[in-house]
Amino acid sequence: MNTHDWLVNLPVCDIETACRAVEVSFNQGSRKEFYRNTSLQLFEKGDMVALEGVSGFDVGEISLTGEIVRLQLKKKGVDEFSSEMKKVLRRATDRDLDICKQNKLREREALIRSRAILRQLNLNMKMSLVEFQADGKKATFYYIADDRVDFRELIKIYASEFRVKVEMRQIGSRQEAGKVGGIGSCGRELCCATWLTDFKSVNTTAARYQNLSINQTKLSGQCGRLKCCLNYELDTYLDALQGFPENADILQVARGTATLIKKDIFKNLMWYVLPDSNKQYPLTIERVQKIRSLNHQNIVPEELEAVEVVSSKMKEVEPEFVDVVGHISLKSLEKADKRRGQRGKDQRQQQQRPQQGRTQQQRPQQQKPQQPRQQQQGAQDQNTPQQRPKIQAHKPAPGSAPKSLPNSQNPGAQQQKPQQRNNPQQRPPQQRKPPGSPQKNG
Q: Is the separation of the CB atoms in 309 and 319 below 8 Å?
């Protein structure tokens, strides 16, 4: 359970007159006790300290220090200088925290075993929680019982089973909900688990004053009792209801007897119902007092003269039904996709252009496919006719027949024949003979 220290920023005027007591919380704030700080150390909120326990030590967390502790002691009627108040031994060490953690792990197993022993003894009580001391020499068993229970035999069994000093504490269902914790129907953590310490009695009269329907399921909390929050606004409702007239549950009019069903303290209206209809008629307090005075004079008014209630909330306009089949177009989405695709293509082309330029510069000339020698020769002949090799031919004597060159002296012809046979598609270009060379006959 948390408490806000609103005096934490005030400076300490006199160290000798300052409050030496501190408030220590155990088991995540489910239990709080006061201890005296006899050492010269100054503790702050959240410090882990080793405390005086039953034949040993205990470990707790500092929750309040300073002058706010003195106010809490006065509120709970505890003497600040009482000799029964236990002391703070020292700041908790790592060894103390390890021992405390090991003993806290035993609590769940001890709770299960203690409930099994209760079923064997057939005792009319419920074991809700088991809390071990930090050093493991003492265990406190919290139970719930409607009647008085004789558990002297149970204590002996627990002491022999767990080998600790046993302490039994009876709590109510509200205290059990505070120790276990949970989330309420409002969505917040339970009040009894955070800040509420004094549990006042709650009855259905508080719900009637607040015009709440008597629904046991909605009005009950996790403990199975009526919610404590029903008392929070009860005083405000009681003060507001003092301005309403008393003994005005029934009014006599010409249409019949009007019965009071509810009182609205926010708008100062009283709602009545007539026997011949289920309609509710809101009346002002002045009108109710006037009708009531007329009824005392044995005068029956004709009408109630109800007031029109105008709500300040804006009415939500429900949208009309519209057939949207065929109205939805995906052209905008298609255009967006096309734009994205075009942008992606442009970026890829821009990235590929510099890469192509680099590869063309770095590509060696030797990687070009080699053409046949004769094709290269023919291409050179066509492109550069000035550099054609001149074939020297022997001029025949006048009057003699031309002689053909032997194969050894004409190697070009010997190479052309097998190439034409093997690959007839690739034929070398025809060589032009220089003027004056002899021609072969048929």
A: no
How far apart CA 262 and CA 269 sit, in angstroms, is 9
DSSP at 242? G
> Hey, what are 180's tokens?
């276990």
**Which residues lie closer than 8 Å to 243 by C-beta, 6 or more apart?**
268, 285
SS3 content of the chain, % helix, strand, coil (to 5): 35, 20, 45
Same domain membership, residue 184 and residue 236 = yes
Element (H, E) at 166: strand 165-170
CATH of residue 271's domain is: 2.30.30
Q: pLDDT truncated to tens, each residue of the chain (442 aa)? A: 556 676 766 666 566 777 889 999 888 777 889 999 988 788 888 899 999 988 889 999 998 888 888 888 988 888 888 888 999 999 999 999 999 999 999 999 999 999 999 999 999 899 999 999 999 999 999 999 988 888 889 999 999 999 999 999 999 888 888 888 889 989 999 988 888 877 888 989 999 888 888 888 889 998 889 999 999 999 999 999 998 998 888 999 998 899 999 899 888 899 999 988 888 999 999 999 999 999 999 998 988 888 887 766 666 777 676 666 655 566 766 777 788 888 888 888 888 776 666 665 555 544 444 544 544 454 444 444 444 444 444 445 554 444 444 444 444 444 444 444 444 445 555 555 555 555 544 3
Here the CATH number for the domain that contains residue 127 is: 3.30.300
Query: Where a domain ends, among 194, 214, 240?
Result: 240
C-alpha distances out from residue 428 to 225, 234, 386, Å: 113, 118, 19
Alpha carbon separation from 215 to 208, 221, 226, 231 (Å, rounded): 11, 12, 10, 17
Number of domains in the chain: 4
Could you tell me if 261 and 237 are in contact, meaning their C-beta atoms sit under 8 angstroms apart? no
Task: Identify any residues that bridge with 61 across adjacent strands, giving them in sequence order.
Answer: 25, 48
